[in-house]
């Protein structure tokens, strides 16, 4: 089954929401700062490029890569 663009975007948005919550919890960031960290990251670029398939991974898996990028 192939996902529609709308379904892909929903999954990406859901991933971002969960990653933002994880950032807030672990790094004690404000909501705005956590979103900024995500949206300005290389991981976000890969997440939104559906050809990479990263958006199909769990938010925790994606978050681990984001933490590596932050460090």
Write the layout of secondary structure elements.
Elements: H1 5-27, H2 31-39, H3 42-48, H4 59-70
Helix pairs in contact: 1-2, 1-4
Describe the protein in words.
The chain has 71 residues and is mostly helical. It has one domain. Helix content is 72%, strand content 0%. The chain has helices at residues 5-27, 31-39, 42-48, 59-70. It is globular and about 40 Å long. It starts with a helix and ends with a helix. The model has no long low-confidence stretch (mean pLDDT 97).
Descriptive terms for the model:
71 residues, mainly alpha
Q: What is the percentage of strand-forming residues?
A: under 5%
End-to-end separation: 37 Å
Question: Unreliable stretches, pLDDT < 50, 5 or more residues?
Answer: none
Number of domains: 1
In a nutshell, what does this entry contain?
This protein is mostly helical.
């Amino acid at each position: 089954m192939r996902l529609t663009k709308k379904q892909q975007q929903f999954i990406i948005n859901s991933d971002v929401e969960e990653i933002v919550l994880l950032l807030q919890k672990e790094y004690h960031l404000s909501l705005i700062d956590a979103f900024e960290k995500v949206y300005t990251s290389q991981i976000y670029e890969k997440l939104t490029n559906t050809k990479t398939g990263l958006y199909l991974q769990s938010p925790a898996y994606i978050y681990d890569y984001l933490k590596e990028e932050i460090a």
